[in-house]
Amino acid sequence: AADGVLGCGGFVKSDVDINFSLVEVKLYTPHGSIKYQTDCAPNTGYYLIPLYDKGDFILKVEPPKGWSFEPQSIELQVDGTNDKCSKGEDINFLFTGFSVIGKVISKGQTIGPSGVTVSLTKSGEIIQTVKTSDNGDYMFTKVLPGEYKVQASHQTWKLEKPESVVKVINDNGNAGNNLVISGYDVSGVVSSDGEYIKGVNFLLFSSTVKQQDVTGCEKSPLKGFTGNQASKPICYVTSQQNGRFIFPSLPTGNYYIIPFYKGEHITFDVLPDKLEFEVQHQSVQLQKQFNVAGFSVSGRVLDSEKGSGVAKAKILLNGNEQTVTSQDGTYHLENMKTGTYKLSVQTSSIYFDDITLKITPSTPQLPNIVASSFSLCGQVVIDRLPEALASVPSQRRIIYHPDGKKSEAVSLSPEADGKFCTKVKPGKYIIGIHLSEQEVRAGLHLSPAEQVVTITNKPIKDIRFSQFRAKVSGTVVCMEKCGNIDVSLDVVGRTDSKQVVQVKDSGKGYTFSLDNVMPGKYKVTILQDTWCWKEKSTEFDVVDSDVTGLTFTQTGYILKCSVSHPIDINFAHEKKKGSVGSFQLNKGTNRFCLAQPGVYRLTPDSCHKFEKEVYTYDTSNPVMLTLTATQHRVTGSIKTDERVNDMVVTIKSSMDDTPLVIGPLKQEIDPKAKPQDSAKGPFTYRFSHWSRSGEKMTISVKSAEVLFYPPTIETTVSGDDCPGEVAKFDGRKGVFINGDIKPALQGASIVVEAVDGSMEPVTLVTDATGKFKVGPLHSHITYKVSAEKDGYVMTKEEGKTASFRAFKLGEISVKVLNEKGESLSDVLLSLSGGNQYRSNNITGSDGLMVFTALSPGQYFLRPMMKEYKFEPASQVIEVQEGTTEKINIKSSRVAYSCYGKVTSLNGEAEPGVIIEALGMGDCSANQEESKTEQDGSFRIRGLQPKCTYNIGLKTGDVNKHIERAVPKSKTLQVNKDDILGLNIIAFRQINQMDVSGNIKTSDEYLSSIKVSLYREENPDHPIQTISLSKSVFFYLPSLLIDDSGYILRIETSLSKTLYNYELPEIVFTANSTYKHFTFTFNPERRSGDQELSRGSFMILPLSLLLIFAGYHYQKVIPFLNQAFAQVQTTVTKMAEQQPSKDYNEPIEPEPYLKKKIKPRKA
Amino acid sequence: KMQRYDLQGTSYGAKNFLINMEARPVGSSSVTRKCIVARLEEVTLSAYRDWASQNAGGLIILIPENIQQLSPEQKKHLRSLEEDLLVEENGIPVYFAPETSELTDIYDSIQNGASGDQAATAWQAFLGAATANGFQMVMSGATEKPLPDFPIASIQGRLSGSGIEEQLPCIVLVAHYDSFGVAPGLAKGADSNGSGVVVLLELARLFSKLFTNSRTHAKYNVVFLLSGGGKFNYQGTKRWIEDNLESDTNVLTDAAYVLCLDMLGADNSLHLHVSKPPKEGSAGAEFLKNLEEITKSSFPDVKFDMVHKKINLADEMLAWEHERFSIKRLQAFTLSHLDSHKYPSRTSILDTRDQVDVKVLSRNVQIVAEAIATHIYNLTSQSVTQLFSDALSPQESIETAWLDYLTHDARSAQLINADSSLINTLQDTMSRYLKDVKITTHKADKRDPEFLFYSGSKYTLNAYNVKPAVFDLFLAAGIGAYLVLVWMVSQNFHLLYSTLKKFVQQPQKTKSQ
Amino acid sequence: MTFFHFGNCVALAYIPYAIVYKCSGLSEYNAFWKCVKAGGAYLFTQLCKMMVLATFFPATDSGGNSLDITGEFLKCTVDFADLLGLHLIMTRIAGKSQLKFMVAGMGWATSELIMTRVIPLWVGARGVEFDWKYVQMSFDSNVSLVHHISTAMLVWLYSRNDVNKSMIPVIVSLLVLGCYRPLIVEILIHAVGLGSWMLLIAKTLFTLCGGLITLQMYLRIPTQLQNSYY
């Protein structure tokens, strides 16, 4: 190419003059992106595409649509030398013709079907054939200009205009869309249960296509088709032998077809009965198969032979419901198949018999179905069930039978609400209700008894049976004006349904009436309880007729009174003398009748006394009288065998405190008894007393000589009935005991007690003469009498029970005095005498001690007391009978004692502590000790005078619980008198050890420190740990002083790496009460040492060496090679020395040297 | 730094505050706005006054590291100095510095620097002034600022007697825990009431041991109070009394007597200071009798007497702590080994740990304990002694530990606020032994604050070695001369060059031939 | 006063440089830029040295007291790089020979001065604290000026081929001494325990005699062009 710019050129040739400028030539890269494009010179069609870079390209000619060139595209591998462009050759594109385009359209549409073969003919002979693509387009390419004919043909479709003419001049020819396909074939299949049916007509309807456009199907009206749709069928076809039917040519649009298949006189039903489809630009194969589902038959349902039709009756074929009859009773059965069917009809209240019949296409009209029987319904209305039946289930039954033929009676039981229904053939029937006897007895009565019914062709539903109702009425006769009185009617046996009605004054008398009364036994009572009626209520029975004539007559006035006790009461009318009488009333409220109206006086008469003697009652204003008894008469009787006239009964009652004394009772002359035996026979005395109810009385009878058994009787008056005789005494003569004491001794006490102890002892004191008399006593008991006086010995005279002899005993009274003559108390005096008499007593506070009741004899007295010497030490005493010996003993203090108190610090006593007094110096021998009492005080006795004692708490294993005493001990000199007030304070043993400590450290470390205590035996398990938060001091809880070893150690949470410190530790034994430890803890911060980067110094010389070597490499390298080769040879020598098999091929010494080329420096 | 506080209107200690001044020895002529560094003995009141008149910038007094090394008269001098310095109104800020090696050589250098004034010839003086190196004293740390509502904390605890607590009589033991000295930072206050606090704690421990055991549970309530602000006219106690008098917890109303403990750490004498001798039969009298008996019977070597000093309402500083109670008509007295309150040792920084002898301290504890015990267990009749022995004896080990802890660092009032570690430790200890221990803090009331503290008690002093200005002139002159020399040399370098050449030529000639 | 003191020190340090610069006639040959270039070279060499030090030498923090001789010794070997730098500068700078080493020495010294002296003076001298060491430091910078010029001269001499052989070892030893000067100073401080003033004097003497010898050698070069200034 001229001066290096590459380019591709060439000519677009055409033997036909085409407008070259429309043709474009483009250069593409292999993967389709445009590198360069140009158009052609209009005159010569020359084009040139400059190329700037080598590589492979694709040269394409881009004519206007439709023009075709040859070749379409050329691949170029531009490499500057041997491809076309660089060789300067022309790349020519030959114009091979225009293209003819056109469209095959469906009639009436703008687009057409694809797959129609279109052929291009020029003056008769076919040049090209092509198939239409979708929408009916087709194109012929390489069509040289000239006049052509385009013919379209299709094996099935008919073309309206099969061919058209197109002229190609200098541009594409356009055949336009005047190849029109008139229509497309539409076909379908009809079959019945698998075998194809011939002769089924299919009527075509369409809303969009007009009839004249459709060809190839019968347009005449179909015989027998009563198409009632709005639109008229366009045409129809009939199915062939193989069940196929075809509409040869249907233009595009929406259609629907209806099948119609009519036998001689039966029209079959074909499903589906309507199929819509749409014709596009294709022939249509109806997918849905038509199926002759059989024929349709119709029939009629009548209610009687000549009756009218039964509407809305359900027709069932073989049990499954098919259709419903229309208004006139007709029904249609669609797509029936020939066969025998059971046809049944169902409707409410009309019954049909099932009929089985054979249905064939030849029997379009089924015989009429006549109703066979009708329903007969009704209701038994019982609005008020007698209560007796409430619980009993109703077995009422309904019986009906055709008139005249009683034998065929049929019984039926109604439902709960009384309804009943049955099926009867047309005819006259008699219907009755059968009641069980129980129901009849209970008063259930239904009306009407029977009903006569005729059934023609209509069911009867309104048979009603209802209950019988009666009317009750009566009159009331009163003595005076009746006033408003009510009458109540209630059913016997059941109390709930009470009906009350008021008595009306209907001029000639007082009447009352009740209606709507159900049959049954009733009781009517008059509600007026202040009057007496002959009968308050009457009973009657309602069977099936009304009840009249009930009368109530008043007989008097009721007196109601409530009495607290059963009494009899007599009443008397004030004015009318006659009516007097008495009634016996029992406890509670009583009512009795007073015949006459007016005022009555009532006097109760019983053993009770009521508040009022006489009560008045006025019949005109009835008021309830209440009588409460307040007092009850209590009687008692006493029987004595002789006359006693000084008998006094005393009654002590619980209610009032003063005993009631009923004066000397008079003998009760028994009227019946004969006068003579009244002198000697048993005499009875009676007494009576009004006591209140609930009063507890003790009755006792006293008399001078007579004793009464039982002595006292206790009764309580219960108050609800007459107490009557409550006390019965029996008087018997009393026994007396009298005795004396010789010599006459005044003031001796005599005790008389029953041997068997049944009587509590009686004591009395003898008088100056020494005599005594006890009585009256019960005669049947034996008694024991004893007498005593201090200082005397009483002995019993033999044979006599109650006379005594008194001996005065001897006495010794001893008085002890100390040196100063004062009485010395609690001196121990021991007296021993004959017949083992012994008595040891302590002198009282007055120093006096009297030994009494000493029988005369010789006695030995010895006074004893620590620290004292008595003068005389001991003595013998002679006691005469009845004498008192007075003895005085003088004592002298020999030793002294020390008083003191051992208390705790706050003054609490320390009982049970042993105090010891140790003699010192010359009297170190004697040792006295004593124990402190409960109040902590102690008294050490027997301290020798002129001795010094060391007094303190006794040590040793005695006072274990005392740790120490303050003062430990006190030395005291005993001289002439006791030592008082030695107060010692004792401290209990609290063997607790307190440990405390402090840590000397700076504040910042304080919070990290913990102090822990370990026992020596297991040093790794701390007993206690204390963390020191704020305070430098720490206090361990107290430990037990038991000499066990402990270790006190400090732990800290400071990390070892940061600080170096040592943890002090102290070992101690728990042997003292308090220990304090001081720790010092001062960690120094370890100097932060960064780790030394252990580089060595050698690096620098090495690097210098390296640089040096690098610098003089020419010299170094040969040196290196030579050394290496030398090493190599030594290696190979060694290898040969060991001839070994596995080295099969000799190792040639690779000349390494050559490889090691120094990379040249770029 | 020296104390700085206002107490009841009068303010003590210097107002201003040394910041950055040159050091001057004592004798130097011009001291205005200079900082004087002096040894203790050089500072006298008169010298101080005229320094103040010349309004010197500040005074640094060097005191030996261990203050006890001072000779007795030096100590006396320091004590007197302490009082006078405080009282001075327009004083200059005084600093006390322990004499470290650097300080001594600074002192010496400014000393001989000063000698320049007395130099014989003017030249020598000039030379001395020029060459002597002066010192620039720079104080670092926040300036002193008032702490208006500084809380003074008092810790109180109680031991309740057996029986119904309300009806039991009560004894109050009081000790103020703060210390006072001319410099708050150095006020260790070992005896002036470190000892009192330790005695109180020891009593608390002993009596709590007694009261826990039912058999030794006395019928007395005992209240322990560690009051703050003791050295400032017993502010803490005053406010505590006011709180507790009208409050319902009638701690004080039925107090049998109040025993204040002050300075019990040394010598063998005990004095009971009373503002009004207790009338016969009263609990106080009984306690006094007990003390006399006990000291006579079991501690013969202790000289005990009662000192009666009426409260003089005129002077505004009270003598003893018990006077606070006596003003409120409470029977109160103070036990101390000082026979008069005027001793300066109570408020001196000389009062360090070794002033207190633990043996004396535990002996005093035993005496007081016995006296109180005989009173509350009314053992007076049997004159029982040696009650507090072996199990109940005071423990010297814990006493020494407490003394070391208390005197470890300064306890002046303005350093101890409510939640300092000292208060916590004391409270923790008391709550170990006593019941319902609580800290009550008191603040000066807003309108006319009785006391006002100032912050800042410890400062670090940096001394810079400074050359006097004239020296720089010298230096400049020197350098100028040197430069001229250099210039001359470089100007005629070629002379040197040529001489060298000649020199080089000859040998070369010699070589070349 | 303190700023005045700072002024003194600066004067002490910098004015001699200016004087030398003036008098040595460099100013005529507008060698200023060459000096700057030398300074740049200096910077560059210092940078390389630092790089080498950083990579190869372990960070020894062996505390101030124990003298890690080997470390120091190796550090000084790195100082040879300075010589290399100087040599480089000289090869680079066009111009007469003595101008070359003068310029190199001058540039090198000034940049070192600027780099190492300004900050300590600014911080130290102006501070309140008065100390002799600032004065010593500035005096020492004068000494190091002389030292650098002499080293430059030595390097220049070494690189000249026409100097007679006998002087080479002297030159080499002087160079080596020059390099190991800080090492020697260290040793002096530690071993002998020289006070700061004595050290300064020692250093000045050492440099002066080094300088004289180099001057002498310089003079011995026969083919010295006479027409150069000196």
In a few lines, what is going on in this structure?
Chain C: It is found in: Cell membrane; Endoplasmic reticulum membrane. The complex is a heterotrimer of chains A (1162), B (513) and C (230). Chain B is an alpha/beta fold.
Please specify the SSE layout and strand pairing.
The complex is a heterotrimer of chains A (1162), B (513) and C (230).
Chain A: E1 6-13, E2 24-28, E3 34-39, E4 46-51, E5 55-62, E6 68-70, E7 73-78, H1 84-87, E8 93-106, E9 117-122, E10 125-131, E11 137-143, E12 146-153, E13 158-161, E14 163-168, E15 173-192, E16 195-196, E17 201-206, E18 235-238, E19 244-250, E20 253-262, E21 267-271, E22 275-279, E23 284-285, E24 290-302, E25 314-317, E26 320-324, E27 330-336, E28 339-347, E29 350-352, E30 355-359, E31 369-381, H2 387-390, E32 397-402, E33 410-412, E34 419-424, E35 427-434, H3 437-441, E36 446-447, E37 450-455, E38 460-467, E39 470-477, E40 486-491, E41 498-502, E42 504-505, E43 510-517, E44 520-527, E45 531-533, E46 537-542, E47 547-563, E48 567-573, E49 580-585, E50 588-594, E51 599-605, E52 608-610, E53 615-618, E54 625-627, E55 629-640, E56 648-653, E57 660-662, H4 677-680, E58 683-692, E59 696-702, E60 706-709, E61 712-716, E62 724-733, E63 735-742, E64 749-754, E65 762-765, E66 771-777, E67 783-788, E68 792-796, E69 803-808, E70 810-817, E71 828-833, E72 837-842, E73 848-854, E74 857-864, E75 868-871, E76 875-879, ...
Parallel strand pairs in A: 1-8, 8-15, 15-23, 15-24, 24-31, 31-38, 39-47, 47-54, 55-62, 63-69, 70-77, 78-85, 86-93
Antiparallel strand pairs in A: 1-4, 2-3, 2-5, 5-7, 6-8, 8-11, 9-10, 9-12, 12-14, 13-15, 15-16, 15-19, 17-18, 17-20, 20-21, 20-22, 21-24, 24-27, 25-26, 25-28, 28-29, 28-30, 29-31, 31-34, 32-33, 32-35, 35-37, 36-38, 39-43, 40-41, 40-44, 42-43, 44-46, 45-47, 47-50, 48-49, 48-51, 51-53, 52-55, 55-58, ...
Chain B: E1 5-7, E2 10-12, E3 20-24, E4 34-39, H1 45-53, E5 58-63, H2 72-87, E6 94-98, H3 101-115, H4 122-131, E7 134-140, E8 146-147, E9 152-159, E10 170-176, H5 191-212, E11 221-227, H6 235-246, E12 255-261, E13 269-274, H7 283-298, E14 303-308, H8 322-327, E15 332-336, H9 358-376, H10 396-406, H11 421-433, E16 435-442, E17 451-454, E18 460-466, H12 469-491, H13 493-512
Parallel strand pairs in B: 3-4, 4-5, 5-6, 10-11, 10-12, 12-15, 13-14
Antiparallel strand pairs in B: 1-2, 1-17, 3-7, 7-18, 8-17, 9-11, 9-16, 13-15
Chain C: H1 2-23, H2 32-56, H3 69-92, H4 97-126, H5 132-159, H6 167-179, H7 181-192, H8 196-220
Helix pairs in contact in C: 1-4, 1-5, 2-3, 2-4, 3-5, 4-5, 5-6, 5-8, 6-8
Keywords (chain C): Cell membrane, Endoplasmic reticulum, Membrane, Transmembrane, Transmembrane helix
Membrane topology (chain C): Multi-pass membrane protein
InterPro entries (chain C): TMEM147
